[in-house]
Structures are given as C-alpha cells and as structure tokens.
User: Which sequence fits this backbone?
C-alpha cells in the first residue's frame, strides 16, 4: 500500500533497454489487444545504423540497441493542446487518452507529439495511441505489452510512488526520459543498456 | 480448466491452454481466447513459473483467418506451376490420390511413393511416417533441410539424438561464461535467449562469434567477427592454447572421454584386449603410467597416460588425446587467425577465459552448421573444446519418449535422406521415386537448388500431393492440393525439443473447429486409408492417439496423462540415460567410424564454396540465408502485421562491397552464380562482414523481383554426414557475385 494516499498516482512504464532485443512482440501485442490492423500503439526503433536492425560504427566495431516508443503519457501533453476538438484528455492517474467520440480524425495532434507516438487509424477515422491498457489496469491486470514482452523488459506501475518497483528501477538503473528539454514530463522511463564487460 | 494466473476475458469468452508447435521448436505455451467458436485473441500461456510468446506466435490468428487460406481441395489444370486450379470434393481428391498411388506403386514399386513432413507436433509427423509405412512406401528424412549437421556431430561425440546433444554444453543453471557460436537465439530462439540473458544478468560474460552483427551480438559483452565456415579452426586454435598451457581438465578427459584410450598408429582403431592377448574381448586398452604397461580400461589403480607414444606387441599406439594434441599443434593462434580472421591475441585470450572460467557454456547455432559443408566438424570441434576443459554437463536429462509404435502399426517405410532424394529422383537409384506428398514442409521453397528442383525433379515426379494451409511455393507445383487445418483446429502433442528453452510436454488442443473444408493431417491420412482399403490403419480418434503415445511405459512419461495435460504443461520426468550412447560409452572426440573420411578427429576443412576456392575468382562473395526474426521460415511471410515491419526481401551488403560494385543503398541488384539468380533490393550497412551478403530467408519467389534465394544454394552431399546421420544442406556455403541492375 502507498504510504501517502494524498499523492496522486502516476502510471507509467519502465523499459529496460539492456533486456530489449527488438523482437517486436510488444508491437504485435498492442495490435492484438487494441485491435489495430495498421500501426501499433508502440513501435521499436533501432538505435544504430541506417535501417531497422542495423548497427552504428564500422565493421567490426559496432553498436546497436533497441528503443520501444509509445505514448509517454506526458504531464503536459502537447497533443492535448493541439487537439481542436478537445478529444485528448488526461485521467487523474496520468494516463492520456483519446475520446474517439470526439476525435474527428483531423490528425493535427500527430505533428504535435515530439515522440511520434500517435497513429491515424483509417478504418475508424480516428487517431489512436497507447492507452496504457487502462481497461486492463482498472481491473488489476498489467498492460498487454508488459505481459507479452518475451524479454521481460517492460515494467509498469506508479512512478510517483517511491516504493514501487518501477520507481526503484528508475533509481537503481539511472533511468532516463526522452527529450527532457521539452519539459513534457514523460511517464515512460528507460533503463540504459549496460556497458560491455571486458575479459 | 485452471489457469496459472488470472486472465482478463471479455464476456462470452473461454480460454484454452494450448501450444504454439511451429518450427522454431520452442513450443511456447498459449492461452487461446475463444468466443462463439472464433479464436479472438492469443496470449502467452504460463509454464508454472514463466511464460513466453513472440511476435510470430502472437500473430497466429492472422494465419488462421487469413483470406488466402485454402478452403477446399483442388486439382491442377494446365501445366505444373501455371496456377490454374479446379475445386474438387474431398471424395474426388481421395479417390484420385488412391488411384494414382496404386497405379504408380504397381508400375514402379511401392517404394516409389514418398512422403515428407517436419515439425514439432507428434501426430502429423508420425502419422506421415506410419502412412508411408502402411503403403510400403518411402519417408524422406527431412533434417537435411539445414538441421542435420548438428545431430551428425552430436551422434559422433555424444551418441545423442537430434538436438538433445545441446544440453551437454549449455550449463543453464550456473554458467560463468557464455560463448555463442553462430547462434542468434535472441532472434530465432527467444525463449532460450532469455536463459542466456539470465545467465548474463547473474554475472556470466557473454561472447558472440558470428560473421554478422546480430541482435545477440549487440547484447554481448564482446563480439568476435569470423570468416564464414571457419569455426572449427577457431576451436582448434583455442585447443592449441589450452593444451599448450596445460589448462585442460585431465581428470574429466580420463574419466569421461576417449582421451586415454590407445589408438593403433597402423590402422587408426582403438587398441583392444583381443589385439594383445587371448580371447575376443573388445575392451579398450590404456597405458598405465605406474606399471609402464598396457592395461585394460577400467581396471582399478591404473593411471592412464594421456600423452606419449607406446609400443604394444610391436604395434605403435598413442592415447587419443595425444592425437588431438598433435592436430591442435597444427593450429597455433597465428595460423588459426590466418584462417578465421580472428586476431591471434583474441584467440589466446578467449581460450584462456573459456578454460578457466568454469563452467563455461557453449551455445551452438546453425550459422556453424549451415555455414560450412563441414558444419558437423565445426560442432565436433566445439564439443571437443568443451570436453577437454571439462565443460560438459550431465544434468537434467528428460528426453520424452513416446510410444511411437502407435502410429507404426502397419509397417515401417524405406527411408531416404532429403539430399539423397534429389539424386534418387534423378537416377531412380536405389529405387524410383515417382510420387511425392509434402505436408508441413514447404520443400520447394525451403530446400536447396530451386532451379534443379523445379526444372528437373518435378518433371520426373508423376504425381505430387501437397497438404498446406496456403497455396505455397510447393503447392503451386502439385497435382492435388489439400487444405490442412491450423494448429488451433486440431489436437496433437508437442514435446520439448531439447534446445534448453523448457522441458515440458504440452497438449495442442482443438481450440476451434477446422475452418472451411480443411482437415488435420491425421484426418487426411485416416480418410485416405479408408479409401485405399486400409480401414484398420489410423482407425482411432485423435484423443486415443494422444493416450497411446503417452503410454510408452518409458520413465520419462511417468505420471503424464491426457487429462492432466489438458490442465497445463507437464515436465518430462527426469530419468537416467547412459552418459554417452557412443560405441565406447565415452565422449568420442576421436571417432573410429569416421576414419574412412579422414575425420576421426574434428579436423578443420575449408568450406566447399569458400572465398579461398578458385570459384571465388568468379563469385567472390559468400552468401548466407539466415533465419528471419519476422517470419518462421516461410510461415508468417503473408501476415500483414509482420509485413509492416519487414515489407520485402533485401540483400544485406557491407558498404565496401557496395562501393566496389557502384551499388547504392536501396538499389535493385542481382545476386547470381552458375545455379541461378535472385533480384531484390540491397540494404547496405556495416553489420555484415565484407565479402559476405545475406538474405533473411522465408520469402517465396513471388516476393522477389525475380528468382529466389534458393536458386543460388546447392544440395551437395557430404558423405561423412551421410554415414553418421543425415547429410545437411550447407545453405550458407555458397558463393555468388552481385551486380546492380537497372530499374524496371
């Protein structure tokens, strides 16, 4: 239990980039759970060379890691401010959602997101994104990507609670956020890859 | 059923615990959500303590409900491969097949009727073997499609059956050092990768040896690039350092390997009691350093020599370890470096680390066994490296042994290995093969030398049946195509394959009814048996066959019943197995059986089409076709969800090779050799070794601009592999040239 019930919950994810192998299971899991035929609420970028699954450097001195990117469920979501129909809103626990009844598919939010985390769904004519599987969270289940992640690299929880597993991972692993200079206040944190150990 | 953890369901959904039995072999558990008879969702199914699923397995509903699924039997109109089909009834299909099999069997003999099948699920393969047996026909042993060289090595070294040899060197519970050889399990065996990753997180250093910078390599503490197909030379270089510095484990070698057994210099056979005394005893002889005399192996108070040269009854003999040391002496780090491209000081350092950080685990991949025509020697050298350093584990034998006889009630077929099949079809020796039935193996797409298969082999076959879910490359050449149902539509048993992911037996449950007119392989063979007047063959239900398979009486199956399997996975019971089922009962790094090939020791032999062969003047690039992460061989290549991530085939090429050919990233290129060609786009990047080009396999001819990657590969038989197990397709032991072609 939380020590101080007055502190608001702040749901988020911690992604362990040391563990992530770019297997794309999260990408597919999101399609399964959210029934997204085109695109996904999460994508896995390769941090390395010119193409997916290619490294930086010069053979054989190479490096590569994978970076899953979903909606950051920002404290100050730029997408919300860009939405002309006020379809984007934030729950008290921090989860940023799109009200599909209000969304008119204008896609003005897409360029507003510094993380390119929004996806236009042509079938429904709405914009979609990671909902942090709030329907699952509300019933006590983990986000589906976290359940399916073969690398056990995705952790979810209350990042405002210093006792939570995610907060402890953030502290222990010096987890970072993407584009802190924009002051969007992302709720997705990344544990950096560990440096190689020498013989 | 009871589930291991709470599962979120929608109203009206039920959840069935089943298994993904596809060809990666891992057999992840699956929870299938079903509503109104429709598979609505797939999620990972727990083993007691963990679960796993991959992007492919999670996409499987897209295979089940794919619009291109075959819905009814068809027969060919027009020429083979022309793509003209006519819908027929199952009755007509079965009548036609029965008639044609009888005609061909009467004319060419029943062994001219051949079947091939692969996969993890038990029924489909055993029923195919059994049906071939009931027809007195031929079963094509399929491991030669690229998987055979590993078992060749493990048969020679350990006497271990397919893939179960892996467990000797994995040390999963406590490896202190992990060495991956041509193995990219992070992409291709992700459940197994997680165990390697766990070992790394517990402190083991991870080193990956590979010509390509794979996902596994990017996760390693050290990446060691190597010239393709030269792994045995690297292992021999490491043995050189280890034996030279005395870092080998003499007690393990003495107690568990052929190291102390004396080998006759005159004929290369182990010296036996009958050679030096009265009687016919086959007992082995060692040289006792205490009495300075030969002694029968196994006598008390004997201190066997591992070095030296001895003369026994006028015959010069050496302990087998001495012979290995003589071989390793030919590979000092400088020479091993010249062959492998790995720096000599890296070889020395790696050897010392491997020998002194115990237990050191080895994970061996098909990069080694497909990368060289002599891939079995690569694995034998890696096994031998483990043997001389005592890095061999005897833990955790739990090989499930079914009552396979349940399906083999009406005879055993003749067996022809996959690569022999090519020659057999072409030459009618040792017998003609005139009818071929392919199921669960997209042979024409996945096996070597596409142009030979489609131009020469197919035309000599008078009748081809393919059972598939889709109009696969193989199906396009068939006379009759039968719609087979998916693994969500039929019952089967999925064993663990022994690659270390898990040791559970699982029930593949019938989650939904077969769609359209599709049937399971078992049902197809059972109905054909009736049509052919063999009613008594395959006359039981799928559930009864599960029960029969489980009732082997083997200790591994103790306590395992169908009812319990419906509730969830059950571990195959641990049971004792002979330490090594080799002729000597010891780990055989020296194999008498392979003397005639000059391969009694794990010698290094240059790959057939290496860059050091004269052929490389014409075709200077090595060509590999590695396992894809977005497909499972040719399965899932038609799934749009995965196609979003990997839209089209590409040829990976190092910038240096691209520049030399005036090729830019994204250009249309042609890779070719004397056997054929493929046209596709090039992906220029640094993650691939110069002078190596690669296509991640699984694509079909229709996915390429022209040709196919298998048009470049060859089916040359390695006689040593044929003698010991099955000859392997050395897919990556292939040379090509690449040139830019004009668009359009």
Assistant:
């Amino acid at each position: 239990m939380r020590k101080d019930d007055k502190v608001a919950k702040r749901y988020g994810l911690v992604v362990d980039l040391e563990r992530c192998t770019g297997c794309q299971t999260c990408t597919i899991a999101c399609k399964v759970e959210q029934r997204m035929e085109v695109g996904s609420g999460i994508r896995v970028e390769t941090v390395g060379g010119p193409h997916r699954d290619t490294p930086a450097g010069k053979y054989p001195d190479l490096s590569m890691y994978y970076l899953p990117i979903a909606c950051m469920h920002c404290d100050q979501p730029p997408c919300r401010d860009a939405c002309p129909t006020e379809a984007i809103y934030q729950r008290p626990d921090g989860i940023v959602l799109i009200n599909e009844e209000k969304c008119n598919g204008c896609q003005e939010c897409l360029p507003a997101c510094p993380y390119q985390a929004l996806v236009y769904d042509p079938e429904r004519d709405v914009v979609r994104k990671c909902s942090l599987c709030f329907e699952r969270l509300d019933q006590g289940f983990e986000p589906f990507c976290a359940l399916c992640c073969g690398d056990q690299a995705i952790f979810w929880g209350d990042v405002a609670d210093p006792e939570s597993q995610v907060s402890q991972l953030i502290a222990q692993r010096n987890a970072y956020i993407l584009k802190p200079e924009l002051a969007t206040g992302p709720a997705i944190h990344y544990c950096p890859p560990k440096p190689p150990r020498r013989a | 059923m009871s589930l291991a953890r709470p599962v979120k369901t929608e109203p009206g959904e039920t959840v069935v615990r089943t298994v993904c039995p596809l060809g990666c072999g891992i057999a992840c558990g699956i929870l299938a959500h079903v509503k109104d008879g429709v598979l609505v969702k797939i999620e990972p199914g727990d083993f007691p303590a963990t679960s796993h699923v991959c992007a492919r397995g999670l996409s499987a509903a897209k295979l089940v409900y794919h619009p291109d699924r075959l819905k009814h039997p068809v027969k060919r109109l027009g020429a083979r491969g022309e793509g003209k089909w006519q819908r027929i009834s199952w009755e007509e299909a079965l009548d036609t097949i029965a008639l044609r099999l009888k005609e061909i069997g009467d004319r060419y003999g029943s062994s001219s009727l051949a079947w091939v099948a692969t996969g993890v699920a038990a029924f489909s393969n055993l029923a195919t073997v059994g049906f071939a047996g009931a027809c007195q026909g031929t079963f094509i042993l399929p491991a030669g499609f690229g998987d055979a060289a590993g078992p060749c090595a493990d048969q020679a070294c350990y006497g271990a059956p397919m893939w179960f040899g892996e467990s000797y060197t994995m040390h999963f519970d406590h490896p202190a050092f992990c060495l991956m050889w041509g193995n990219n399990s992070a992409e291709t065996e992700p459940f197994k990768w997680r165990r390697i990753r766990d070992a790394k997180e517990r402190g083991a250093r991870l080193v990956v040896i590979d010509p390509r910078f794979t996902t596994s390599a990017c996760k390693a503490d050290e990446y060691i690039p190597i010239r393709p197909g030269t792994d045995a030379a690297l292992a021999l270089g490491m043995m050189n350092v280890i034996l030279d510095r005395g870092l080998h484990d003499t007690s393990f070698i003495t107690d568990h390997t052929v190291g102390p057994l004396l080998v006759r210099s005159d004929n290369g056979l182990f010296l036996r009691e009958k050679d030096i005394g009265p009687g016919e005893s086959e007992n082995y002889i060692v040289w006792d350093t205490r009495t300075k005399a030969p002694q029968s192996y196994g006598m008390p108070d004997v201190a066997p020599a591992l070095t030296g040269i001895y003369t026994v009854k006028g015959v010069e003999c050496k302990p087998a370890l001495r012979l290995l040391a003589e071989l390793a002496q030919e590979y000092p780090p400088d020479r091993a470096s010249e062959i492998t491209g790995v720096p000599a000081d890296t070889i020395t350092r790696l050897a010392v680390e491997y020998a002194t950080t115990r237990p050191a685990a080895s994970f061996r991949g098909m990069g080694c066994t497909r990368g060289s025509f002599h891939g079995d020697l690569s694995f034998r050298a890696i096994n031998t490296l483990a043997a001389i350093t005592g890095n061999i584990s005897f833990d955790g034998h739990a090989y499930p042994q079914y009552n396979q006889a349940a399906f083999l009630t009406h005879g055993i077929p003749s067996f022809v290995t996959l690569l022999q099949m090519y020659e057999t079809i072409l030459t009618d020796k040792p017998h003609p093969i005139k009818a071929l039935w392919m199921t669960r193996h997209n042979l024409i797409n996945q096996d070597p030398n596409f142009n030979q298969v489609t131009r020469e082999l197919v035309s000599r076959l008078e009748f081809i049946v393919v059972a598939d879910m889709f109009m696969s490359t193989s199906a396009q050449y068939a006379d009759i195509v039968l719609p087979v149902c998916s693994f969500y539509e039929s019952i089967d048993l999925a064993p663990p394959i022994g690659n270390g992911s898990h040791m559970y037996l699982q029930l593949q449950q019938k989650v939904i009814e077969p769609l359209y007119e599709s049937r399971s392989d078992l049902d197809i063979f059972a109905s054909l048996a009736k049509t052919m007047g063999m009613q008594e063959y395959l006359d039981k239900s799928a559930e009864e066959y599960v029960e029969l398979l489980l009732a082997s009486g083997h200790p591994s199956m103790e306590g395992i019943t169908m009812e319990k399997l419906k509730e969830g996975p059950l571990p195959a019971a641990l049971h004792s197995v002979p330490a090594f089922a080799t002729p000597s009962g010891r780990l055989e790094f020296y194999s008498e059986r392979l003397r005639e090939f000059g391969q009694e020791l794990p010698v290094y032999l240059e790959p057939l089409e290496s860059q050091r062969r004269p052929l490389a003047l014409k075709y200077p690039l090595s060509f590999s076709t590695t396992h894809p992460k977005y497909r499972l061989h040719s399965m899932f290549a038609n799934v749009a969800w995965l196609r979003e991530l990997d839209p089209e085939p590409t040829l990976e090429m190092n910038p240096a090779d691209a520049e030399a050919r005036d090729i830019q990233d994204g250009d249309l290129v042609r890779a070719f050799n004397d056997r054929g060609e493929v046209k596709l786009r090039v992906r220029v990047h640094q993650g691939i070794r110069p002078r190596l080009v690669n296509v991640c396999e699984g694509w079909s001819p229709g996915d390429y601009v022209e040709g196919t990657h298998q048009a470049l590969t060859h089916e040359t038989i390695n006689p040593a592999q044929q003698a010991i197990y099955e000859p392997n397709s050395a897919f990556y032991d292939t040379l090509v040239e690449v040139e830019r072609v004009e668009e359009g």
Q: What stands out?
A: The mean pLDDT of chain B is 94. Chain B is about 30% helix and 20% strand. The radius of gyration of chain B is 26 Å.
